[in-house]
Amino acid sequence: MMKWRPFLVILLLALAGCGGGSEETQTVVSVPAAATAPSPPAMPPDVARVVRNLQASSSGVRRDAAKLACRSYSRDPHVLQVANRELLNGYTRNMTDRVHIDAMAWLCKTLAASGKKQYAETLRKVVAGTSNRKLIKYAKESLRQLE
Length: 147
Description:
Layout (H helix, E strand, L loop, with lengths): L3 E8 L1 H4 L8 E8 L12 H10 L4 H14 L4 H14 L7 H17 L5 H10 L3 H14 L1
Antiparallel strand pairs: 1-2
């Protein structure tokens, strides 16, 4: 059964030049609701916190969130999507920041813990594109877990 969302349409005939005098006519019209795609399920608050912290500006906050993601949220699609994106955005940046490198290594481990082979390409990019030995080591280990 189609849901109908009522809309109140007020036609002001006086403004349109129709009808006589200053009478206002109101017409109620029911218009079917627009066909919309179902919205994705809302994130639980704990997942939202991890996702928010993975995107934080502080390397320490990102590292702690990446550890938590690896240990407890490695199957959550929201967390994995953000972890993948943050790793791709960060594996060539801040190579002198040890905490940032640690966060990137934990993101590699998070993707590996998911068991999803779709993240192997990201890990290959990290291995090929970074100059940091620690990050290369963890990206290779993570890639081996997925293959």
